[in-house]
Design goal:
heterotetramer; A: 501 residues; alpha+beta; 8-stranded antiparallel sheet; 5-stranded parallel sheet; C: 169 residues; mainly beta; 4-stranded antiparallel sheet; 16 strands; 6% helix; 51% strand
Chain lengths: 501, 501, 169, 169
Amino acid sequence: MTNLKRVLVANRGEIALRLLRGLQALGKETVAVYSEADAAAPHLRAAHQAICVGPPPPGESYLKIDALIAAAQASGADAIHPGYGFLSENADFAAAVEAAGLTFIGPTATSIREMGDKTTAGEIARAAGIPTVPAHQPDGEVDAAKLQAAAKEIGVPVLVKAAAGGGGKGMRIAHSIAEIPDLVEAASREAQNAFGDGRVFLERYLENARHVEVQVVGDGAGHALVLGARDCSTQRRHQKLIEECPPPQLPTATHDAMLAAARSLVERSNYRGAGTVEFILANDGAFYFLEVNTRLQVEHPVTECVYGVDLLELQVSVAEGRGWPKELEQRQPQGHAVEVRVYAENPAAGFLPSTGTLTEVVWPQGPGVRVDAGVERGNEVSIYYDPLLAKIITYGEDRDRALDRMEQALAETFLAGVETSVQFCRELIAHEDFRATRVHTTYVAEKLENAAPAPPRDDDPWWQAAACVGWNLGQPDASGSGPSTRQPGAWDTLRDWRATP
Amino acid sequence: MTNLKRVLVANRGEIALRLLRGLQALGKETVAVYSEADAAAPHLRAAHQAICVGPPPPGESYLKIDALIAAAQASGADAIHPGYGFLSENADFAAAVEAAGLTFIGPTATSIREMGDKTTAGEIARAAGIPTVPAHQPDGEVDAAKLQAAAKEIGVPVLVKAAAGGGGKGMRIAHSIAEIPDLVEAASREAQNAFGDGRVFLERYLENARHVEVQVVGDGAGHALVLGARDCSTQRRHQKLIEECPPPQLPTATHDAMLAAARSLVERSNYRGAGTVEFILANDGAFYFLEVNTRLQVEHPVTECVYGVDLLELQVSVAEGRGWPKELEQRQPQGHAVEVRVYAENPAAGFLPSTGTLTEVVWPQGPGVRVDAGVERGNEVSIYYDPLLAKIITYGEDRDRALDRMEQALAETFLAGVETSVQFCRELIAHEDFRATRVHTTYVAEKLENAAPAPPRDDDPWWQAAACVGWNLGQPDASGSGPSTRQPGAWDTLRDWRATP
Amino acid sequence: MTTPSPTGRTKATMQQRDGSYWVSAPGVEEPFRVVAWTPPRLLLEHAGEVRAFTVAPGADGAVWLHHDGETRCIAKPDRRGAAGAAAHEGHDDLSAPMPGKVLEVLVAEGDTVEAGQRLVVIEAMKMENPLRAPHHSIVTKIHVGVGDAVAPGDSIIELDQAPAEASAD
Amino acid sequence: MTTPSPTGRTKATMQQRDGSYWVSAPGVEEPFRVVAWTPPRLLLEHAGEVRAFTVAPGADGAVWLHHDGETRCIAKPDRRGAAGAAAHEGHDDLSAPMPGKVLEVLVAEGDTVEAGQRLVVIEAMKMENPLRAPHHSIVTKIHVGVGDAVAPGDSIIELDQAPAEASAD
């Protein structure tokens, strides 16, 4: 049993803030790292110490293993938490951290390697008796005829997926046998770019399927703590948009079978740390193993709300060799939680990333609302990093109450300067299909494809009048002689400030 | 059973926001009212409709019964929620609302009258077998000799309290018999000012006592829902500063006896709506009935966190004649919650109110953090209204976790422009006395009296350098030719804005 | 003092009178009164009703507005005029929606393309983002090549709408 | 270009050099570099260490700062100088800490008062706020009467410290 004293968080954005805050609440000293593009980012002010690890491109900063380990050693950290994304599922990083005599708050390098590779993970799952989706793994060279034959055997539609991937990168759906070779090439190239590993495989594509995943924690010695399931079926571009805990309208037998499957996988593989076992739930009620994510997921807060746990605390506790309190194994879910991801993306333009300066940021507050934000007013949303700006989580006694609170919370949310997913998600959560749990993983794409483009709505005189005020009064009257509005504000204050010598 | 459609919230600040948000999440349409001083206040933008009810002084706006009822009728509201403070415990208001054919979301006028008067409430409590603190109620004229005789019988120290009061207004402690007449006069005057009722009474003052209160909901027909207790012992100037649920280190037998006493009071008085039964817990373990607050308390969120309920929803449900779900009667507390009140006050100057413009406001975020704020950047903190700016609530699996999260949350909180209670509460929560539950109702006053004045700490070169940047770069370089800092921010954006014709 | 608003279409104007600011919008007789303006918070009054907006500046003089749970970005009118000019009758000038790198050019000048067809793929934030044809068109000009870096607003490709297959009249 | 900081005691100064802003504080050899300044967020670097501050303007040129969980308000130095002058050796000039109304005047000019004794009661926000003597003193001047409205900074009462009972030397 070790007792970690000082932890370096090798990440940025909302997850870095969540980890730094959480570690400090656990009594740990913290070290943040940042790239030159992030000198104004909120995460670095949440830490006791902040270290610049390089220029803006991730490959020269947040992905630079030697710079991160050097920062940990220079700052006296005894552990590194990788967050999600970046190096969180990089086995070489985990190995390098341990080789430097530091604790890696995450699975062993071996586990990351085994589980991170979908092909190997699938074999482990099948060995544990968990069904996987019919699939084909091309060996070495990509041969068009072979691939087409394999696809025929699996049956179209067929999914082309990166072996090392996640988050929808390097993924394509083939609706005909003919387009397989082209799509394999595109997916492979994208996978090579994103993960440095261009291997792809084919898999039966299940239509109108749901994405359900199980939160697990392993102690590395064959024991598993299973903390329920999450539904993450609301996706766009194969990336999650809205998540819920517990999954709505999931038969208890299916729910329990998924949990049992996840438990068996963790126990058999001596998995250590927090992880997620992902399943695809076909529209006939069958479920198949998808993959294991060997990290804390973006959507972990919904589990925290409903199971009353702090998953970071469990990660730290396992990393310190203390396991978890036995009573957690009996913990029952209470209430319902939902998470909406706030992406800098324009839903009306196929969720294209949107960049710019956030000139205003207003987050929701109040009962049952948790905000994990990675940006604040004044920040630049750049092309360098993931477009996830923040997560809004609401909690209630049941699903409808949680969703009602989410509608209210999203209505309060305002980000100026970039397009976001907020309004789209608000409309979706109010929609009868969402309320009735009719959303599956391709629902958003299909709806958007069929949606008529929204008519321009700039004509409303109220909105025009408000815009006119912005254009005309956007700065305080330079002469200072105009009739001032009743309440002095930040911009009025500027005038006082300006008067200072 | 009625079904309320549109509710007017007759309040301002954080409670108005909490109610408007909550009502909208319950599917109600909402109406906000505001005074001319509050045209920039956040609460009015949380509602579907906002109506100005008068000039800044409360007596001409938020306390003006006819203006409020006229606003409700003009806006088509079918109910009024009074919040806390202002008219929330004014029986005439409740009666006038009902007389206008509207629903008053609160107790009956009769209940407010009975319970709101401490003398009458004490009689009801004693009739229900609940002990009250030895006391004396002067009849009519205040006679110095009589009062001194009564005080001698009760025993010093003696508390002088307003009969109609609350929140520490019109309250004095007499440590000797001699000072009784002067203190009675001062208390009576303050009570007359605050409540329009100068009646005061004497009561045995219990040293090192704790304040514990029980959350109740009555259906108006003799049934009670009892939702645990709160500890509100951390007070300054007889007003609460920090509250917790459940009360720490309270013997189960005492806890249960308090809940039973509160239940009996609600059942016997046919109380309707949410209310709080306040007790004083003497340092010998005995407890005495203090008073009943016939409203939603400031500190209701800690109960909501620990009992997983929405007290506003229960208020609305009772007002609609639907009572509450039976399963709530078995609800057990889960975890621990703490609330810190953010007052515009200077603790270093005896908690004197502080006024000014809030030039910056930063609230905490993340797991287990709830913020109910009534102000935002740019708002003016004026002398017209209560100095309570916001409440920060943290929740955790146990008391230490909730308090650790609170320390972290308060460290993130920043309000510029007025002095606040934030830093004082942060230091208090970190203090071993607080951690060990050694805080009683006069702890803060005694500590502050004995505290050495803090030495000036402006010399630190880091702080001086930061201040120097503010003085020199507080506005963007007018020439626009200086080396710009890396990240464009709100003030840089002003420059772009300025370029607009 | 009357400051003409730069709004092109609606010609909303702002006036200063009786110690208040007033905004006149076309098609509405009574002007809007600025009750409070503590940036970014705005309270407007019109015909006895008050409404709250949040107003913040955007790029290129655009303004971001929030009201009743809805967010809108209203472009600076002269810019919108320019965009309107580029998109003259039957002509589309597609520009880069974000900064990125051109990954693929899938068509050549002179090609006929279908509405929705992928024309150019731009990589940004590690994702491939296709630029699609808005109408059945002919490619008249391609401004980029594979590997080019593009900034938002850069012209990528120009199209002329092809004649409809069978017009009723 | 060197802008002298208005800080009275420490004479911190700001310089612009090599495309950065630098702040020199007395008693510290190496200057502080402004790494990022996106108001209200400031990142400073000094001797290889970076620290984050939040900086916002206050009344009368004061600056509010937040760092490492702590909030401080640093007054504009010339103002502090003036305050220092008022509080000359053995003299206290007590001013109103907030706007309010004088409710009671409990002493008269010439009275000797004890440290902590209540002198004047001001009502603000419906609370009675006593002004107390900071030292064992003699009341030299009372500037207010019962019912007077006072604004923050208004002089209320002046005191001269009374000689200590028994000074050792």
